């Protein structure tokens, strides 16, 4: 029986359009106002960084007060928190990485901030902690001992697992940017590492389409691999034009067949059984987008997913199996392409 999906995005996906080469082009929207947009846009889950709730240096009493206010607003809007991710890549204490820094005090800061993110997640009512290991890597390979670095990531995860027995940790892997070379560059790398942690059943993966593409991989293959391990607990759908910087284009806007492949695998291979059926988006508006259209990239991506889902669910699996049986892959290719074209 086909199940319904839920949808999420992070408040950073409604942005001013600033980039490293130019200033903002749209007015900022207050966080609380962004929350009020979600349901009207068709979304019911919110992605969080720890400091999307309160500033990272806020004391614990102030943190509790601030997070409880946000939780109340979510409830009033009929929203839920999907996950919390410690934003470890922007702090001055983590310029050499966080868990893999060569400086012991900086590693300790990263651990404590991660534990605090877990406590925030508990206040928001989500067990999911996403780790984007943004600066866990090197600009030159000799800058760190790579074997020690991998061990330090495992050690950090183990501390988090011990801190709270109810959390699930989702690794969001990316091969490069902001680092030249990242440790654990693909979902497969993190999946292998999960089995060396203290509680492998609570360590899984979040796959972002563009990150797999940046590694020269098809996101649907990464998704299928992690689904086989029963560890695909989150996705960030978007698109990417080649092996460039992380573009976060609207889902399906570059390669519609590649988008179809992802929806096909997710819907046919049990993603909803391994997750809450939440389809996350991580997409950016084009820089030329006007203020009044600042959420179009989100609603466009959502519509494309739903349209492709209809196509996926209308595929005649008996025909697909017949093509497979005779190894008529040319025929199968045409069948899928015509199906995508509405023929």
Lay out the secondary structure.
Layout: E1 6-9, H1 31-35, H2 38-41, E2 45-49, H3 60-77, E3 80-85, H4 104-124, E4 128-132, E5 137-138, H5 146-163, E6 168-172, E7 181-182, H6 187-194, E8 203-208, H7 209-214, H8 219-228, E9 232-237, H9 256-268, H10 271-274, E10 278-281, H11 296-314, H12 317-325, H13 329-340
Parallel strand pairs: 1-2, 1-10, 2-3, 4-6, 6-8, 8-9, 9-10
Antiparallel strand pairs: 5-7
Keyword list:
alpha/beta; TIM Barrel
Can you put this structure into words, describing what you see?
Strands 3-2-1-10-9-8-6-4 form an 8-stranded parallel sheet. Strands 5-7 form a two-stranded antiparallel ribbon. It has 13 helices and 10 strands. Helix 4 (104-124) runs parallel beside helix 5 (146-163) and helix 9 (256-268) packs across helix 11. The chain is 43% helix and 13% strand. The protein has one domain: TIM Barrel, CATH 3.20.20. The chain is globular, with a radius of gyration of 20 Å. It is α/β, with parallel strands linked by helices.
Distance between the termini: 25 Å
What is the CATH superfamily label? Divalent-metal-dependent TIM barrel enzymes
The level of helicity is 40-55%
Task: Please describe the biggest sheet, giving its number of strands, its sense, and whether it closes into a barrel.
Answer: 8 strands, parallel
Cα shape: globular
Q: What is the CATH topology classification name? A: TIM Barrel
CATH class: Alpha Beta
- Work out the strand percent: 5-15%
Which strand order do you get reading across the main beta sheet?
Answer: 3-2-1-10-9-8-6-4
H and E order: EHHEHEHEEHEEHEHHEHHEHHH
- How many helices? The count is 13
Mean pLDDT: 97
Detail the poorly predicted runs. Answer: none
